[in-house]
Amino acid sequence: MIYEHTTNFAGKPVKDWEAQSGIQDPEGVCYALRLSYEEAEEGQRWTDKFAAFLDDPSSSQVYGIVIGDWGLLSSATDETSAPVVEALVAARDRLPNLRAIFFGDVLGEECEISWIRQSDISPLFTAYPQLEHFCVRGADGLSLGSLKHDRLKSLVIQSGGLGVNAVREVAAADLPELEHLELWLGEESYGGDATVADLAPILGGGLF
Hints:
This protein has 208 residues and is α/β, with parallel strands linked by helices.
């Protein structure tokens, strides 16, 4: 169980974004956008909060974004990450300086890591060719697609059980600048069904 929200990502401190204070340090801070359970039950959506974030003139200089709970346990929202992915892709021209994304800084008390419903996140890598750091938490429904990226330096996948398809997508990825790869393989009972053979191309050391 993960008990605390991340306080540092991609070498930058993480700060919760608040509409009242706005974006004060776009290049020195990674801003976290989270939807509380109460906000979700009241009908607010993560995408609405993100739209307000983008309306800040300083958003064009933002270095990093941390995506927290998007309403995972609320009956009023779509539980998968697909709408969040779509919103981020649509905002690509408004976030030209984005270099770091943490997708799913969700605590166990908000949603257990094995219950976080991800989706196909591959469009993010095409939308942000300057991206250098990417971390995703939760592997249920996760797909990286045919991952090819010329700038990505770190890739982290945190899960309670990482499925074989995701492992094979990593093993087939074309990431010439990758320096750090971290895979939480987890347990078979939570979907971690990759074998040593699936991991062999990664462990061999010749991929990246």
